[in-house]
Design goal:
The protein is an alpha+beta fold and 260 residues long. The protein has helices at 4-13, 27-32, 52-68, 98-111, 113-120, 164-180, 218-226, 228-239; strands at residues 39-47, 76-82, 89-96, 125-135, 151-159, 188-193, 198-205, 242-253. An 8-stranded antiparallel barrel has the order 1-3-2-8-5-7-6-4. A hairpin with a 6-residue loop joins strand 2 (76-82) and strand 3. Mean pLDDT is 87; it is low at 2-33.
């Protein structure tokens, strides 16, 4: 198995672009820990109408079974709080290298995971979608520990045809300006793998209070770093590279996640 104004400012920054959330450890901490990667696996699951409580109970049992059976992946559950569809759940496992999925597949086969899923969970599920995504670690700024954050704003955009160069150039320029000016707010960028060429901006939040306007704003930081004309041109370059897909806010569900 696998807001508001903070969104507006960062969204303006990057045309306003999903888990969930990776590790926010420092480079030194990661070097001392086991090697990690930048690939995440994400499952989006819609329970059958009226079966939400039964689905959650079954998910808890199923995730506990996976943990007890030696699942090499750690899964975190999320639920949308804001958006046009609030009826689904997201389950993510982060910080993988591609080779890790071979080990996960081997484990799935060994323990007959598909049979366990059918027995414990499938009767409550209406629809499932499966995705991979690659974190753009070079242009992300994450601090603290994953458990520090309760909410995650996810802004998703599709890359316009032929706009890849402009998008990446503007992202790199904006990120450098924010880092040079020591802008303190965390954000993570991730590219979708498979389907349309999509991009996500993930903003971790500890509370609703974190959804207030950041100070200084992204535009103010860029103007200071680049000058008014260059800042405006960079934001325009970025904004014209993507098409709107979705904005949402998710809450982490530790009770539906792999337990430590």
């Amino acid at each position: 198995m696998k807001a508001r104004s903070l969104r507006q400012s960062l969204g303006l920054l990057l045309a306003l672009l999903f888990a969930l959330c990776g590790s926010y450890a420092s480079a030194a901490e990661k070097a001392a820990a086991k090697p990690t990667g930048n690939i995440a696996e994400r499952w989006v699951v819609w329970p059958k109408a009226g079966q939400e409580k039964a689905f959650e109970a079954a998910i808890k049992e199923y995730v506990a079974w996976r943990k007890k059976s030696g699942d090499p992946f750690h899964w975190v559950g999320y639920q949308p709080l804001v958006g046009t569809d609030l009826t689904f759940y997201v389950f993510r496992s982060d910080e993988h290298q591609w080779k890790d999925f071979d080990a996960e597949d081997a484990w799935n086969t060994k323990v007959k995971e598909d049979e366990a899923y059918d027995k414990m969970l499938s009767q409550y599920v209406a629809k499932v979608q499966h995705f991979y995504e690659e974190t753009d670690a070079a242009h992300s700024h994450m601090v603290g520990n994953p458990g520090d954050y309760k909410y995650f704003q996810v802004l998703t955009r599709n890359l316009k045809s032929g706009a890849g160069g402009d998008a990446r150039a503007s992202i790199a320029k904006i990120h450098k300006a924010l880092q040079d000016q020591k802008w303190p707010y965390p954000y993570r960028l991730a590219w979708g793998i498979g389907g349309k060429d999509s991009w996500k901006l993930i903003i971790p939040l500890k509370s609703y209070a974190d959804m207030a306007d950041p100070t200084p704003s992204v535009r103010e930081v860029l103007t200071k770093a680049l000058g008014a004309d260059d800042a405006a041109a960079t934001l325009k370059q970025y904004g014209s590279s993507f098409e709107f897909v979705d904005d949402s806010i998710f809450v982490a569900r530790p009770d539906l996640s792999s337990q430590k």
